[in-house]
Amino acid sequence: MTQPLSLESVHDVLARFIDPETGRDVLTMEQVHNIKIDEGSLTCDFGLTTHSAPIWHRKQTEFEQHLRDNLPGLTELSVNHVIHQRPASPVGEFGLTVKSVIAVGSGKGGVGKSTIAASLALGLKAAGSKVGIMDADVYGPSIPQLLGLNDAGNPTVNENKKIVPVDAGGIPVLSMGFMIPEGEAVIWRGPMLHGAITQFLRDAAWGDLDYLIIDMPPGTGDIALTLSQVIPLTGAIVVCTPQRVALLDAIKSIAMFRKVNIPVLGMVENMSGFICPDSGKRYDIFGRGGAKTSAAELNVPFLGDVPITPSIREHGDAGTTNQNLEDPGSSSYLQSIVETLVANMAGSAEQDPPQPQLPVLG
To answer: What topology does CATH give the domain 90-351?
Structure first.
């Protein structure tokens, strides 16, 4: 005989469903409310945080299936999906209120690192997450151009003497490109770079973020070391193109991140073949699949590839990179990278739940 539904049996099942952000069960994290049982009927509110926004639909479907599979007496289910509010705790030396800090790097220049970094931030924002972008590529800041912010001028300072990031459609952005005239070179040694990056983190009003995306300089310079010292990075993403010379540099970049104890969240292969818009035929101009093979050899997740797409270049030149997420030639690739990244982070959190961040004491 089927056991009737009870609050105890429902709680027991909820305690076995894991929140993708924290890696802890949704009952402990108080993400299920207004549970109502009427014989075999169950209704409830189920919340996920905006940090998990790119995989909301997947997790909501899994939640409902989890209840159906594990409650034999369940005959009718109605779940009201809501946003669970969980603000970020202060982290790092400067007490930034951000849940995940992700550096986007490359072994060499010219592989589309900044485009991927901007697209990643825009994809997270479009899904519903709270995102900021810090352009740490001091020598060649590209983020203002990609986001159409070349005429934004110098950031302002608020009443608390904090730098106010430039707003890009709801994404706070800081870049050295806002502070130097276009075409002027930055000629700085290590201590000045350290000071600039530190100021962007310490003296800026970033607000409460799910993700801070940091566009790194290409190569294996000392900015990664600076970041590893002043803020706990969730991890790094390495962007490369398929040809061997680019992969060799990407491997060095991965080695650098590992040397300074920054986890590598994955590799992205950019300019991965060209799909002719007239015929649909694919041409592997720079090759294809090299990054996926290298990722497997290095035990690094492969997040996805992006083919050579003229519209990506056109949007970058026009400062409308956000339109890549709507363009049929690029949207599916970029959205897949965002979802794979967040899903992988959820899997890691479930295997090894992160310790709650403690407030920074002044």
So the answer is: Rossmann fold (3.40.50)
